[in-house]
Amino acid sequence: MTKIFTCLLTVVLLALASSLASAHDPSPLQDFCVADNNPNSAVFVNGKFCKDPKLTTVDDFIFMGLDVPRNTHNQLGSNVTLVNVDMFPGLNTLGIALARVDYALYGLNPPHIHPRATELLTVIEGTLLVGFVTSNPDNRLFTKVLNKGDIFVFPMGLIHFQFNIGETNAVAFSSLDSQNPGLITIANATFGSNPPINPYVLAKAFQLDKSVINYLQQKF
After folding, report:
1. What's the Cα-to-Cα distance from 77 to each of 16, 47, 71, 104, 143, rounded to whole Å?
2. Contact between residue 32 and residue 90 where contact means Cβ atoms under 8 Å apart
3. How far is Cα 51 from Cα 33, in angstroms, rounded to an integer?
4. What is the pTM of this model?
5. Distance from CA of residue 41 to its chain's centroid?
6. Using one digit for the tens of pLDDT, what is the confidence trace for 139-149?
7. Of 163, 69, 178, whose CA–CA distance to 117 is shortest?
8. CB atoms < 10 A from the CB of 37, how many?
9. Which of 70, 119, 140, 186 is the most exposed place for a label (fewest CB within 10 A)?
10. Contact, 130 vs 141, CB < 8 A?
């Protein structure tokens, strides 16, 4: 009897572990669920209403325009065009998103995380210095220079970045394994929160003078 109970408990624990492992984007139970803003739609999946499958057309499964270069005239010299479920309703329940990233000379996609997705970056043009940092306590930096055609993976939830170190503009495409990967830019979240984090907290955390923290909070 004890052996049977132990086996049952093991199966239950494995099932729970399996469900938790895939909890960020559950597998769909139907062929597709094109997102619809109509609240009269009968089915609500992954935070979106589902369009009636009988009213779905091929246009629900196409997104155009990622061949057009984006404007990088900003402080960071980069521009991220994210194609997620909000822009492309056909992605709903499919667990994927895509981004085009344009980099000016010395353009930076600053340190950030995607709390719900692993990212696969493919360099289309140019040369990028990329990297990610592991979690505490090691905080190891994995970094590499990428050229056209190279692919790099950023594990889910880890701080990562891309920096154009080439002599021309650069372009990359990112694939993410969530229809809504989320984005937290480290500097913006830390120094530009609303309301601001108490400067004494940040001064102690970063071992900086409070005046420096006040300056950074004004910048963001």
Report:
1. 45, 33, 9, 5, 20
2. yes
3. 7
4. 0.81
5. 28
6. 999 999 999 99
7. 178
8. 9
9. 140
10. no
